[in-house]
């Protein structure tokens, strides 16, 4: 009984924090204040001294533009930590930012944190996330699986004895899960998501136009004119890059149909994983899913027409969650406020 009381006392001085530690973006929710940080998961540091120079949006602006002395890195790849020091520095920066803006002395006492992680990570990878959070100043670090967090954030009744099917397409992984009675009955974590869509656009433009694009440009094109299904009105975007034949700058006008063609193979892999997961689902849960449908979350679900394509391929009703980008962090927030649910669904706990 003492621990909840201590947590309540500490809560007066520190802010409990929910974090969606994504490959592309990091979102931070703070008790009593909502989502306070939405920043790219990018860190810029000096190559020789390892001094952190920028984090988040300011670091992302340096991608592809930094001199040789500065390395601009994304510390998470496919939803797991690729650079421990950079991840810890990024988390510490956001925790400090949260407490400073709240008028509280940083780390006195340290906050409780709930972090969403991909369902397919290993125990070693889980430990790395928990250790990064603890070294960044967390008092406790609880890890929950992203599809479960997304389902809770979308307002789905995860503890009921009925099947729920969630597809969370993020930057580094696509999380597919069948949920019932507060647990994941069947889950798949496919390392094909938003980053692979960007790569597909880069490869398509390189092969068709001999034009080399940077990742930020490819991402902008995907967001502005990308789609999963043919649209009534064609959209266009002008991109600039380096001509691979001459080495000189070059501009090309791309159409939404070209981007759709570029994205098709990547989308098909994600849809195949969804179909495979449905094929392995127990019959009783399949009947529930046929009635309630598939719920999509994550940034990838914002691609126009993706819900229709998934629905056509699976023969299931498909709905996109409200504000899909924030489902995971809102799920982390809800379990922070419900100790019983947190104890039931967490996959790891660090002190």
From TrEMBL:
CDD domains: ASKHA_NBD_MreB-like
Transmembrane spans: none
Source lineage: Bacteria, Candidatus Woeseibacteriota
Name of the protein in its database record: Cell shape-determining protein MreB
GO BP: cell morphogenesis; regulation of cell shape
Subunit field text: Forms polymers.
Annotated positions binding ATP: 23-25, 171-173, 219-222, 299-302
Top-rank taxon, per record: Bacteria
One of the record's GO molecular function terms: ATP binding
Family under the similarity heading: Belongs to the FtsA/MreB family.
InterPro entries: ATPase_NBD, MreB, MreB_MamK-like
Localization in the cell: Cytoplasm
Statement: the UniProt record of this protein carries the keyword Lipid metabolism: no
Keywords noted in UniProt: ATP-binding, Cell shape, Cytoplasm, Nucleotide-binding
One Gene Ontology cellular component annotation held by this UniProt entry: cytoplasm
């Amino acid at each position: 009984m003492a621990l909840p009381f201590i947590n309540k006392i500490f809560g007066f001085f520190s802010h409990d924090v929910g974090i969606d530690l994504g490959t592309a973006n990091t979102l931070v929710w703070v008790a009593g204040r909502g989502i306070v940080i939405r920043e790219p998961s990018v860190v810029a540091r000096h190559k020789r001294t390892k001094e952190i120079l920028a984090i988040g949006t300011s670091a992302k602006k340096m991608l592809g533009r930094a001199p040789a002395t500065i390395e601009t890195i994304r510390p998470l790849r496919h939803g797991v930590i690729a650079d421990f020091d950079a991840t810890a520095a990024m988390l510490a920066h956001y925790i400090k930012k949260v407490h400073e803006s709240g008028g509280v002395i940083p780390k006195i006492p340290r906050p409780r944190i709930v972090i969403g992680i991909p369902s397919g990570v290993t125990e070693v990878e889980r430990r790395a996330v928990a250790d990064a959070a603890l070294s960044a100043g967390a008092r406790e670090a609880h890890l929950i699986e992203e599809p479960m967090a997304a389902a809770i954030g979308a307002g789905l009744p995860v503890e009921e004895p009925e099947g729920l099917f969630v597809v969370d397409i993020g930057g580094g992984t696509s999380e597919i899960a069948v949920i019932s009675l507060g647990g994941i009955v069947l889950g798949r974590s496919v390392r094909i998501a938003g980053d692979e869509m960007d790569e597909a656009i880069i490869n398509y433009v390189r092969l068709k136009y001999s034009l080399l694009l940077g990742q930020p440009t490819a991402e902008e094109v995907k967001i502005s004119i990308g789609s999963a299904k043919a649209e009534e009105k064609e959209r266009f975007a002008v991109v600039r890059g380096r001509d691979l034949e001459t080495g000189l700058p070059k501009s090309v006008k791309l159409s939404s149909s070209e981007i759709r063609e570029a994205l098709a193979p990547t989308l098909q892999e994600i849809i195949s994983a969804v179909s495979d997961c449905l094929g392995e689902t127990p019959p009783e849960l399949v009947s529930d899913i046929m009635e309630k449908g598939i719920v999509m979350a994550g940034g990838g679900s914002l691609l126009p027409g993706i819900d229709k394509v998934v629905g056509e391929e699976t023969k299931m009703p498909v709905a996109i969650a409200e504000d899909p980008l924030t489902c995971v962090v809102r799920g982390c927030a809800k379990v922070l406020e419900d100790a019983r649910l947190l104890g039931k669904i967490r996959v790891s706990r660090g002190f």
